[in-house]
Each structure stands twice: as structure tokens, then as C-alpha cells.
Design a protein that fits this description.
The chain starts with a strand and ends with a helix. About 35% of the residues lie in helices and about 30% in strands. By secondary structure, it is an alpha/beta fold. The longest helix is centred in the C-terminal third of the chain and has 15 residues, at about 155-170. About 35% of the residues are buried. The chain is globular. The strands form two sheets. Strands 5-6-7-3-8-9 form a six-stranded mixed sheet, with helices on both faces. Strands 2-1-4 form a three-stranded antiparallel sheet, with helices on one face. It has seven helices and nine strands.
Length: about 220
Amino acid sequence: MIRLQNLTKTYILNGRRKTVADNITQVFPSGASVALLGRNGAGKSSLLRMIAGGMLPTSGKIFSTGSISWPVGFAGSFHPDLTGSQNTRFVARIYGVDTDDMMEFVQDFANLGDHFFLPFRTYSSGMKARLAFGVSMAIPFDTYLIDEVTAVGDANFRKKSNDVLHARLETAGAIVVSHSMPTLNEICDSGAVLEDGRLTYYNDLDEAIAHHMRNMNEG
């Protein structure tokens, strides 16, 4: 369960105030896979980062039960001078998982060959994505935060990513940001629409998508 209590996030951009979360109080139920919908710039990624703990709200609180992932596929926390192998070991130690098991999983999944033992800064964007997704999926979280991760990589990698993600979601929940409606229909069972700083939750995914499409058409 993730509970947002009076959550507010305001940015000051070029002297102008933009609020992407306006006193939101909402519960994301345990085990639910929720599509987070909203137009570009609505604040979906900011909301994920606040839930993950990587961004502080302007005010309000976030409570949770169970473990929550960082945004799946996010590579920004990897040290550029450490190898893929070293970065993987470091994350394993932070989260208290078996280092050897995690190394084996990530090395097999990312399929980086010898690059796994080279500095992360030498990787192409596709290689960074494969390592980041492999590290994300190697740890069993109760809730996964997913931000367009299935859009990266070639067709084979996207299929592999979808397969392992579906396996994880058999025993976990998720909050998913994606512009692909087929992806959301495949992964999610409920939805929430973020618009003008307000969050509207729907137990029925189709109702959430209909609300989102009305917003897009009106825009």
C-alpha cells in the first residue's frame, strides 16, 4: 500500500510557479498494477520520483507498506567510473540481496558480454538501458515504479523485458507510466489520471483511460 497525504509539489520555472501535485490525498492499494495517466508535463515522472524517495515534495507525506523500487530502468544512480559488474554488486549490497545470484541474473539478462566488466561511462544508451533494467528486475520489490521502460531497446530486448516484468508482477504491484495503451492494458488493472495537479483514481482501467482521452481531446 502507498498512501499520499496532502502531497504538494511546486516548481519555480523562469519565475513562474507550476504545481504538478496539488494537495493530493490518495491510496494505491497493495498488489494493484496502476496506470498513471496524464499529458506531457503533468508531473507523472515527478510523482514516481517522490514515491521512490528520490525527490522531496514541497509539502505533505508519503506512507507505504512493503518495499518500493526506484523507477525501473533508471540509470542515473550508477557510478560512471565503476564497471557494470561493480555497479551491480554495489546495488546488491545496498538492498541486502545475494550478490552472486544478482550478478548471474543481470549478466545473463543484460547480455553485455565483456562490456559488463568495463566502466559504465563507456556504454551506449542501449547498453545502459539493458543494465539498468536487469538490475531493477533482479530485486524482488512489493511495488515496481515503471516509467516508459518497455519503450527502450530493440524488439528482442523489449520482449525479454516484458516477459520478466510480467513474471515479477505475478507477486507484486506496480505504478506504470506509458504512452502505449496496449502496454497499459496488458500490465495494469486500474488507473489514475494526473491533471492540473489533481489525481483521480479509478478501480477500472477503462474508466481512467476514457478520462485521460477526454483531457487530451479538450487540450
